[in-house]
Specification:
globular; about 40% helix; alpha+beta
Length: about 140
């Protein structure tokens, strides 16, 4: 493993081991779930939306290190974002992983850290779980 790979791996593991906003949100206005059929990882998200912005967020995460790191980064950045920003981040993340696209922009640029795991195609769905669950939540009511 090269030095840069070790740095990325250490950062990914640090995010995975320190996931913020764990649990349920009792006054959530939106809930969503996503499951990776490839590895069995699961994420449930709880969002509170007011005036078109996410004002609170919580999540239950049962995922591999890569999925947990993505959930950690998302939870650190999601409050204050609009539903459109979440959909854009999901689309950019998917393109980064599957189409060699650029890293996500704006509040979610730190998800670019996971670009180092792009070659692990069987983990793409896990890395997308938190974003997928959030988009599903925003498209439904609790």
């Amino acid at each position: 493993m090269s030095g840069i790979d070790a740095i990325y791996q250490d950062k990914i593991l640090a995010y995975a081991g320190n996931i913020p906003r764990l649990g349920k949100l009792p006054d959530a206005t939106h809930k969503g779930e996503a499951v990776s059929r490839a590895c069995g990882s699961e994420i449930s998200v709880y969002l509170k939306l007011e005036d078109g912005l996410i004002v609170d967020y919580a999540q239950k995460v049962d995922a591999c290190a890569l999925g947990s790191a993505a959930a950690s980064i998302l939870a650190s950045s999601i409050v204050g974002c609009s539903p459109t920003e979440i959909e854009q981040a999901r689309d950019e993340m998917r393109a980064m992983l599957k189409e060699d696209g650029p890293v996500p922009s704006g509040s979610f640029a730190e998800l670019g850290l996971l670009q180092s795991a792009r070659s692990l195609t069987n983990r793409h769905s896990s890395m997308l779980l938190a974003l997928e669950a959030s988009v599903r939540a925003l498209n439904s009511k609790s």
